Amino acid sequence: MALIRAQLRLYLVTDPLLCARMGLIETVTAAVRGGVTCVQLRDKSASTHARIDAARAVKSALAGSGVPLIINDDLDAAVAAGVDGVHLGQGDAQAATARARLGTDAIIGLSCETPQDVRKADMAAVDYLGLGTVFPTATKDDHKPSIGLDGLATLAGLTDLPCVAIGGLKHAHAGAVLAAGCDGIAVVSAICGQPDPETAARTLMHAMTPTTGENT
């Protein structure tokens, strides 16, 4: 499944605690009904076996939607579950290794927090970059200091790869994220932590849709 930039427009990153109230599958399917264009399964504390089981369940729920499913960090789980791709951090497997194991059609993303991260990204193996953390966030406690919107624009300007911004982002930031040069916005609590994920996603998607006359 080849990545197209539009699939980064509204990128949902799941959180096991925030999804617990409604349930992972219910949260994801509601969010997709609201307009989510890509789903990343992220559970830092789960075992590979548990990630495989969760990924297979989400994959089944997404069947026919056209929304890609990506697993965070765990290359073994991505291979075993047969999902659309993997998202790697700077300390995870090399992108070239992931490409070799997942194949040419897989989607491979890479987190970049600094200009150095962006410059050393393997352009031949990576399909998109996740840029941030833009603002402080409680859903990821191992990130470097937040870069703000100016820092986001700096990182986006260093690459021709598709980019998605992440870190403490809400619908009010949508226009600024697009103006910074990103293709989309990645959120966790702005959807998973809301009482109505479908409505939350729809509000975000509306904010990410340029009005007539703006660039797409």
Automatic annotation (TrEMBL):
Binds 1 Mg(2+) ion per subunit. HAMAP family: TMP_synthase. Transmembrane segments: none annotated. It comes from Loktanella gaetbuli. 2-[(2R,5Z)-2-carboxy-4-methylthiazol-5(2H)-ylidene]ethyl phosphate binds at T137, A138, T139, G168, V188, S189. This is Thiamine-phosphate synthase. Its cofactor is Mg(2+). Pathway: Cofactor biosynthesis; thiamine diphosphate biosynthesis; thiamine phosphate from 4-amino-2-methyl-5-diphosphomethylpyrimidine and 4-methyl-5-(2-phosphoethyl)-thiazole: step 1/1. Condenses 4-methyl-5-(beta-hydroxyethyl)thiazole monophosphate (THZ-P) and 2-methyl-4-amino-5-hydroxymethyl pyrimidine pyrophosphate (HMP-PP) to form thiamine monophosphate (TMP). GO terms for molecular function: thiamine-phosphate diphosphorylase activity.
